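hey m, so remember when u said the tokens were messed up on ur end? i reran from scratch. heres the input so u can diff it against urs
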Amino acid sequence: MVKQILFIEDVYKKIIHYCNSQERCQQEVQEKLTQFNLKPQESNAILKYLVDHDLVNEERFTKSFTSSRIRYKKWGGKKIAHELILRGVSGVLIEQVWKTVDQEEYKKMLSLLIEIKLEKMSGKFTLRKRERMYRFLLNKGYEDNLIQEAFQKYFPFII
């Protein structure tokens, strides 16, 4: 009985450290807790403690995830939303957080990504290169209308 109590205290310490090292969503914490082979009620109690003490906050996680993926990985909104859904974040929360994203900064990241890709493409800009660029931006998760808008700015001569 004493070992079980000590074990739970150790789990609490480890999981608190895990949550303090970076923002985590509830699904990530739940997956981490499964590594400790806890009973479901123990796992749920720990997760509830973390949520109650604001160590796990879905909204804060979603904001952090969204801003870091835009700034550092230059991902588009579709890819970010897809990843958040895979992590168990609700669609309502994703939409709510997306409304807070600075759209001008988001468009600047798209432009920066186009400029970086253009530097890597050598030679004359052809329709084939335009298609490759378009697919690249779609794979990064950018919306079709924003890509078209950016293409009119960078390639007004190619329809």
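this time it looks ok to me. Residues 6 and 137 are 51 Å apart (CA to CA). if urs says something different then somethings off w ur setup not the seq
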